[in-house]
Amino acid sequence: MHRNLQLLGIAKKAGLLAIGGEAVSVAAKSGRVEAILSAADTADGAKRRAQRDAEYCGAQYYVVPYSKFEIGNITGRGSPGTLAILDKGLAKGFIDGLAGEDAENHTGASDIIEKPVFPPGRKLTPASSDSKATGKRRTAL
Questions:
Q1: Class for domain 3-107, per CATH?
Q2: Can you list the alpha helix ranges (DSSP code H) found in the chain?
Q3: What is the pLDDT of residues 79-106, one digit of tens each?
């Protein structure tokens, strides 16, 4: 097993991995994302959405050389095409590992810089602002 895939497993167990397109978008809107990853066989539309999320929150974006199946085996969540690493140290370790495996495409990739919680010029919109009040009680998961 690749060291990078093991790092994804560690991130999942630590609760520092957002799995799936919707979870990644929510994490990006909260400004907690350090790196967003797309599997090599992810659909083009999902890759574009992940890249937009990365630009929104100022995170690094990479298409990794692993399939959705390989990532699903580590995360235990079917076959997710998009992931977000929420910890700077784990993101740096993962990207350094990518540079070691595929130096041509990922050279200097670990230059993760300090970034503000929210990118300049962007305002945080609450995730619940889209929903209208229905009078029903909402419970947290």
A1: alpha beta
A2: 3-13, 21-30, 44-57, 68-75, 88-101, 103-106
A3: 899 999 999 999 998 888 887 765 555 4
